[in-house]
Amino acid sequence: MKFEYHGRFFWLSGFCFLSGSGSAYLYGFLDQAWKDSLTKEEAEDLVVKAVSLAIARDGASGGVVRTVIINSEGVKRNFYAGDKLPTWYEEIAPGISPLESLLSGPAPMVDTR
């Protein structure tokens, strides 16, 4: 990402610019997943996946995804309703949460001799 100062404004160039409460999640994901060779469809799928991951992990990231594709063909806006987005819960293995383990008391001591 490259920032340039031009008098009264900044010019930003790079493959993406993100802001907002979920942007830290997005940058981490996109840094490893983005490829310059992505097709338009692959890029949009990746953006929808990235934003839905942020929504799943950040309560302030909203509940829908809106994309805008701007190219020589014009402008195309897409809307992805929250109930149609992946939830990503299947990524987390089921188990006892840290809070549940604290409430259930200390783990029994095991003699490993």
Report on this structure:
The chain is α+β, with helices and mostly antiparallel strands. It has a domain at 18-93: 4-Layer Sandwich (Glutamine Phosphoribosylpyrophosphate, subunit 1, domain 1), CATH 3.60.20. The longest helix has 18 residues, at 40-57. The protein starts with a strand and ends in a 10-residue tail after the last helix. The model has no long low-confidence stretch (mean pLDDT 75). It contains 3 helices and 4 strands; from the N terminus they run E-E-H-H-E-E-H. It is elongated and about 70 Å long. It has helices spanning 23-33, 40-57, 98-103, and strands at 2-6, 9-13, 65-71, 74-80. Strands 1-2 form a two-stranded antiparallel sheet. Strands 3-4 form a two-stranded antiparallel sheet.
Low-confidence runs: none
Question: What percent strand?
Answer: 15-25%
Tell me the CATH superfamily of the domain at 18-93. Aminohydrolase, N-terminal nucleophile (Ntn) domain
* Order of helical and strand elements: EEHHEEH
SS element count, helices: 3
- Known CATH architecture of the domain at 18-93: 4-Layer Sandwich
Helix content: 25-40%
Across the major sheet, the strand order is: 1-2
Mean pLDDT: 75
Fill in the CATH topology of the domain at 18-93. Glutamine Phosphoribosylpyrophosphate, subunit 1, domain 1
Gyration radius over CA: 20 Å
Structural features:
about 110 residues, Glutamine Phosphoribosylpyrophosphate, subunit 1, domain 1, two-stranded antiparallel ribbon, 3 helices, elongated
Offer a quick outline of the entry:
This protein has 113 residues and is of the alpha+beta class. The chain has helices at 23-33, 40-57, 98-103, and strands at residues 2-6, 9-13, 65-71, 74-80.
